[in-house]
Amino acid sequence: MTRLRTTAPLVALVLLATGCSTLQARHDPLCAHLLAFANSASLGTQPAIELVSDWSSFSKHCTHGGTPAGRQFCDWLLPNTSTEFATINIQRTLACLAPGTNYAGSERLFPEYVTGKVQSLDVRGLEADVVITVEYAVGIEGERPRMKVQAERLPPQD
After folding, report:
1. Share above pLDDT 90 across residues of the chain, in percent, rounded to a whole number
2. Residues 122, 96: contact at Cβ < 8 Å?
3. φ, ψ for residue 13, nearest 5 deg
4. What ranges do the domains of the chain cover?
């Protein structure tokens, strides 16, 4: 009976915390770091990072292409993203681009595999001439889960 009394509030808290992905996305610190990385792109460059997870060895790594913004984003991603559940990292990132949209399962549904590539020009806090591209693959036999984020600053329109 004591176990039930302590478990019930914990379950309620978890349900409340995961209940509304739209609200979570706006407050997820990942979104601010994603925007800082994307907005750092200069004309003629396409900075990119790639986060690769290996849950079997409980490790992950992030490549940043040598850019200061990429290095800073990777330095934040490594301790602040899931190693075991790469799909959650993808969900969080995509929720920053389009809150409420579901591309990669949900809190209660984990796909066996998922791949995709999305682009966005219209994200709150994203500079008007910047495009963010997110490409991801999870559950592909023989490959580690990965997520690539790329930014591009578009040339001014005449």
Report:
1. 63
2. no
3. -65, -45
4. 21-153
Q: pLDDT tens digits, residue range 54-111?
A: 988 899 999 999 999 999 999 999 999 999 989 899 999 999 999 877 666 666 776 7
Asked if 47 contacts 65 with a C-beta cutoff of 8 angstroms, the reply is yes
- Token pair listed for 94: 């995509």
- Classify residue 156 by burial, with Cβ atoms within 10 Å: 0-12, 13-18, 19+: exposed
Q: What is the DSSP string of 12-35?
A: HHHHHHHS-HHHHHHH-HHHHHHH
**pTM across the whole model:** 0.79
What is the Cα–Cα distance from 134 to 113, expressed in whole angstroms?
16
* DSSP one-letter string for 92-138: HHHHHHSTT--SS-BTTB--S-EEEEEEES--TTS-TTEEEEEEEEE
In the numeric block, the tokens 């790469």 are attached to 86
